[in-house]
């Protein structure tokens, strides 16, 4: 349960902010409680408005891979801010970040910076339409690529959490330009290409889904999408907003040895500041204004403070690797211990769950079979998840407040944090049994 100070703030917030929050899942509605208002965060922990500490597995929904308030990132932000917070003009840091992103993800020859992952995905798909001269987009049921109108079709995450498949306010004509297929179902995508192939501009996918809970791709699925796109003249767009710099320094593309025509990035790439990016083949990016006819712009794009945070975060990830302490091995070890421990805690308590994990993204699904698509995820016992979430929060462990959002751990989560989590989980599973 949230504390008295948070409850008072939430009551005030609801008078001025719809639902009391600026992003729906944060309202904690689907877990039957009220949000903890955060006053500060450090390392693996956040501190609620009343001073209570929670072990954090949200990590700002992905960006905080180094842990909260990493001193090097904070220094970079403070130093950058002293020089001014926005110019609406090019800076050296934008060039440095563009170079670093292209170096990390070799399929990106050029990149354009935005202010959010939503903008990156929306712009990447406008670019795909402009490049191919085609209008249809294929996305997967339960995948979320931000809240642009045409992407709020069978989107997971917040919409799934609120129990609505699609958003009101999206004209039917717009929604019709988006075709959907079940995740991990290559045959369904092939069928879409057979019916509408000449009109399909792009296929966009979360390579490891984080927005219906953590759902990995089955072997051959991503490779098959890439081949289909190439054979049918569509662009393959990999949404690495969550997976970029998280599953490997080169993201899911490095981990699964695949290549996108266009990649979208956000979260870690901005080091916890508002920043997104989309990039890819230079012949495709050459269609963007001012080089080409596809318009895209933004006053805060490539913001000097956000680029400083992004650069500092990527530098830390690279430095740790150079020091011999591979950050991704550390994240993997923590993840493996959490995965095994959570599975065992649920088994001992007799609670049927499926724990799915890729690196430092994971979910405890309250269902007893594998979750490979939105149909599987939607069969979870969300009421029981809600009770589990509350039981964990009462024990100081802050999980994403939705069955359909992946948890993330950081480089600050170590054996002590794993132990704390598993102790809480043993009790919480027993409580919800
Ligand atoms: N559904 C969003 C993440 N997948 C929530 C973001 C937020 O509330 O900040």
Please name the fourth-level CATH homologous superfamily of the largest domain: Type I PLP-dependent aspartate aminotransferase-like (Major domain)
- H/E element sequence: HEEEHHEHEHHEHEHEHEEHHHEEHHEEH
The proportion of residues forming helix, as a percent range, comes to: 25-40%
- The number of helical elements comes to 15
Q: What is the mean pLDDT?
A: 95
Order of strands in the sheet with most strands: 4-10-9-8-7-5-6
Task: Tell me what portion of residues adopts beta-strand conformation.
Answer: 5-15%
Overall body shape: globular
The biggest sheet, with number of strands, parallel, antiparallel or mixed sense and barrel status, is:
7 strands, mixed
- The Rg value, from CA coordinates, equals 21 Å
How many beta-strand runs? 14
Count of distinct structural domains: 2
For this structure, what is the CATH class of the largest domain?
Answer: Alpha Beta
Distance between the termini: 19 Å
Catalogue the unreliable spans: none
Q: What name does CATH use for the topology of the largest domain?
A: Aspartate Aminotransferase, domain 2
Bound molecules: (4S)-4,5-diaminopentanoic acid
Based on secondary structure, the structural category is alpha/beta
State the CATH architecture of the largest domain.
3-Layer(aba) Sandwich
